[in-house]
Automatic annotation (TrEMBL):
PANTHER family: 60S RIBOSOMAL PROTEIN L27A (PTHR11721), LARGE RIBOSOMAL SUBUNIT PROTEIN UL15 (PTHR11721:SF3)
GO molecular function, one term: structural constituent of ribosome
Sorted UniProt keywords: Hydroxylation, Membrane, Ribonucleoprotein, Ribosomal protein, Transmembrane, Transmembrane helix
Family to which this protein belongs: Belongs to the universal ribosomal protein uL15 family.
Pfam families: Ribosomal_L27A
GO annotations of cellular component type: cytosolic large ribosomal subunit
Parts of the chain that traverse the membrane: 163-187
Keyword hit for Coiled coil: no
Region (Disordered), start-end ranges: 24-47
Protein name (record): Large ribosomal subunit protein uL15
Ranges for domain Large ribosomal subunit protein uL15/eL18: 85-154
Top-level lineage group: Eukaryota
Basic residues biased stretches: 24-43
Length: 227
């Protein structure tokens, strides 16, 4: 008769003196911690019971956790005042080191331009120090300390709004000068009270009379050259 013995039949159980339970005697939790006590979740998992059997805890330590307050805001647009900032100590990291070295060696006095808007920043803050090297910084906004420190190294920061205003003013001046030149070319200079026939100068009173009449003269272009 053949009897096959399995592994469970071969391996005998360890004696009680060598088992783990004998070593854990005298320890209150018996290796299962103090909070759960080797049980499941008698009070519920997570925030369960916040409005029921855990209400006291939520009312005391988390007031206003449940419920709604105020009115609904339809089509809410967040981050409308999105404005990334960069500090002064990070300004020169926006350009290459070779740019700074070449600007320091340049004896013409032309300061390098750092455009923080092109790098994705809008406002320059005043944390840190700048090297003693003139630099022109272009940004949309500057803090007071940042502007003072940039001016302290020899140059100034240009706000994008100021830059746009300067360009608009220049364009307006060019348009005014162009219109003035076109207006002077069509004036009747024959009515100018010129004392001398070949004199390139005329009196203020005679010029006012020409402005009043505004007559055209085919010889005005040649006369404008003499004036």
């Amino acid at each position: 008769m053949l009897i096959l013995l399995t592994r469970a039949d071969v391996v005998a159980e360890a004696p009680a003196r060598l088992r783990k339970t004998r070593k854990l005697r005298g320890h209150v939790s018996h290796g299962h911690g103090r909070i759960g006590k080797h049980l499941k979740h008698p009070g519920g998992r997570g925030n369960a019971g916040g409005m029921h059997h855990h209400r006291i805890n939520f009312d005391k330590y988390h007031p206003g956790y449940f419920g709604k307050v105020g009115m609904r805001h339809y089509h809410l647009k967040r981050n409308q005042s999105f404005c990334l900032t960069v500090n002064l100590d990070k300004l020169w990291t926006l350009v290459s080191e070779q740019t700074r070295v070449n600007a320091a060696k340049n004896k013409t006095g032309v300061a390098p331009i750092i455009d923080v808007v092109r790098s994705g920043y809008y406002k320059v803050l005043g944390k840190g120090k700048l090297p003693k090297q003139p630099v022109i910084v272009k940004a949309k906004f500057f803090s007071r300390r940042a502007e003072e420190k940039i001016k302290g190294v020899g140059e100034r920061g240009i706000c994008q709004k100021q830059f746009i205003i300067i360009i608009i003013i220049i364009i307006i001046i060019i348009i005014i000068i162009k219109n003035a030149v076109e207006f002077l070319t069509v004036l009747d200079y024959s009515e100018l009270e010129i004392k001398t026939k070949n004199s390139p100068f005329f009196t203020i009173g005679s010029f006012r009379e020409v402005l009043k009449t505004g007559r055209t003269n085919p010889y005005a272009r040649n006369l404008r050259k003499t004036l």
